[in-house]
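Request: Show me your protein:
***
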Amino acid sequence: MFGGNTCSPWSNTIFNNLLAKISMLDEKTKKTIMQIQKAEITEYHIYARMAKQIKGKKNKQVLEVLSKEEKGHYDFWKKITNEEVRADMIKVWFYTFVSKFMGITFGLKLMENGEEIAQETYDELAKIIPEAKKIESDENRHERELLKMIDEEHLKYVGSIVLGLNDALVELTGALAGLTLALQNAKLIAVAGLVTGVAASLSMAVSEYLSIKSEHDNTRNPLRASVYTGIAYIFTVILLIAPYLLIRDLYISLAIALFNAIVVIAVFTFYVSVAQETGFRKRFLEMAGLSMSVALISFGIGFLLRIVFNIEV
């Protein structure tokens, strides 16, 4: 469907005409082309490495096609500049690392968002080298279509992870804020938070399992979805109660726990916004606002309970 060398439709005559124009290229234009060359060979290495580390045959083929196309583009520009350009190996390592631990789709879309070659650059080059527009069109169309073909487990279960994180953040930030005022003892707060968190994570995991099973959702495995929900919840619980085990000052511990909650919200919202191409700001403000509001209300409730019941620990 997308196979074959990108340069193959261009005959020797076209190349001869292009080569005749090289002497007309000023230093700025040549530098721009070499910048594009660097981007093409860098992406070639990134896709090639991703293809080697991925397990699924379908995704491997998708990445191999992307890799061949980038190499074809690089070879075309190399004939124009008659220069070898080295790949940016820091970017190769970074995107390969990100893709390995956060998913191929996330890595590819993050790389797309970080592309440095603007459409205006190709438009300017097209005035001298018409094929520049074709390369830009090929890259945009092929990469969009190929990205849609990536089938990844991470994205199928994003909903389950969101459910686990949302519940853990809202419930536990509120519980810790209330317990901080009511109990006034770091170890007791940590133990109470851990018991509450573990019980809630098991409850959420079971609920997710039953929900997906009752919906007869063939795209997601109920057991896997419940595991993702439970793990997301437990991870959040550990991150939020850790300050109470490490720091004596209760209010500093609470402040760090709330800060950790904001960081978790920011990181995961960024992941979802890149992987699913959704807005970051609105989702982040909504989740952060809910979590902090519940924490504030619970803090006030804890204060009132301490006074009403005269709790002394």
User: Anything to note?
Assistant: Confidence is low (pLDDT under 50) at residues 1-10. The CA atoms of residues 169 and 291 lie 6 Å apart. The chain is about 80% helix and 0% strand.
